[in-house]
Design a protein that fits this description.
The protein is built from eleven helices and 16 strands. The chain is an alpha/beta fold. The chain has three domains: 131 residues, 2-Layer Sandwich (Nucleotidyltransferase, domain 5), CATH 3.30.420; 92 residues, ATPase, nucleotide binding domain (Nucleotidyltransferase, domain 5, 2-Layer Sandwich); 56 residues, ATPase, substrate binding domain, subdomain 4 (Actin, Chain A, domain 4, Alpha-Beta Complex). The strands form four sheets. It has a five-stranded mixed β-sheet, with helices on both faces. A five-stranded mixed β-sheet has the order 11-10-9-15-16, with helices on both faces. Strands 5-4-6 form a three-stranded antiparallel β-sheet.
Length: 319
């Protein structure tokens, strides 16, 4: 096809990348308060519209295909700086281990958005390539895609997937734990966006947090030791490591044995959490590394695979 977009449509953010560059925006729509079927704005600009309702059509699976398609179309036109998608195709990242209707929904969203041709690409293979991994080696390594609401793990060897497993558990468990800690232990209310920012900012000894007093409703700023929050998040790390162990247990024994040396690659927006790779390595007893640009690894990998950089275009990535 003459023009195409690489697409990674997640529940928190939608990433798109064309031959000419990249683009990212939130999977969020601002709805008319008088008519919930009318979209006022898409993406970050919708946050600035007071009184507008909010919709996240990709959370918990693609529950609203027309709305998800509308957002994808708007993002695509903005990325390509075009008025139509005539002649444009889409390669969309897809996770294995999910119900078939979820994969069909991805295809339907792409078609309704107006793409000429829609193909699904393995998110794990794309993420590994986008992170600079050699997926053609004989020794298996694991790729773990941590999204907001899901975790997909798979072993990769000889250019393909040996196994793949998806669980409905993602980085949102950390956000909820942080929000609960402030509410129950501190009597303070914070937003989910603040919680997401905090888990990425644990490098320093102290955290400065803008919040609201639960009793009075007054805005205030507090300081908190990073170590206290890291301790609070330990049970979430345990849940995540348990899910990864279940994926390892489902893999062929010989391939799983390679992980002692080859380890696990983390990517996806949830992999940006400070210290997560080190914490998982300590619990699992195997090396764990984070992709250089974890949130964009899959969409970058799709572009590399479909353009055939470094060799012929890989047919096997199409699902």
């Amino acid at each position: 096809m003459s023009e195409y977009l690489a697409v990674d449509q997640g529940s928190s953010r939608t990433k798109l990348m064309a031959r000419s560059g990249g683009f990212s925006d939130e999977t969020r729509a601002a709805l008319d308060p008088q008519n919930s079927l009318r979209v006022i704005a898409a993406g970050e600009e919708g946050r600035r519209i007071l009184g507008a309702g909010a919709a996240y059509p990709v959370r918990g699976g693609i529950a609203d295909i027309p709305l998800a398609a509308l957002l994808l179309r708007r993002f695509a036109l903005r990325a390509l700086k075009r008025r139509t998608l005539v002649g444009v195709g889409a390669f969309i990242a897809a996770r294995g281990g999910v119900p078939e209707h979820d994969r069909e929904a991805l295809l339907e969203v792409g078609r309704e958005a107006g793409f000429k041709r829609v193909r699904l690409v393995s998110a794990l293979l794309a993420g590994a390539v986008g992170a600079g991994m050699d997926i053609d080696g004989e020794r298996a390594f694991m790729a773990a895609d941590i999204g907001r609401e899901s975790l997909t793990c798979g072993l990769i060897s000889n250019g393909g997937l040996l196994c793949e497993r998806t669980e409905r558990m993602g980085s949102v468990i950390f956000d909820r734990r942080i929000m609960a800690y402030f509410a129950e232990e501190q009597g303070l209310l914070i937003s989910s966006r603040t919680a997401e920012g905090l888990k990425k900012s644990l490098a320093g000894p102290m955290l400065r947090v803008s919040c609201r007093d639960a009793a009075s409703g007054r805005a205030k700023t507090v300081e908190l030791r990073s170590s206290a929050l890291q301790s609070e998040l330990a049970p979430c790390v345990n849940r995540l490591s348990g899910a990864i162990l279940r994926a390892i247990d489902s893999a062929p024994a010989e391939a799983a044995g390679d992980l002692v040396d080859t380890g696990i690659l983390l990517f996806g927006g949830g992999a940006e959490q400070y210290g997560l790779a080190e914490a998982l390595a300590g619990r699992l007893g195997i090396p764990v590394v984070t992709a250089p640009s974890p949130e964009f690894a899959a969409v970058s990998g799709i572009r590399e695979l479909t353009e055939g950089r470094g060799g012929k275009r890989r047919k096997f990535v199409e699902l």
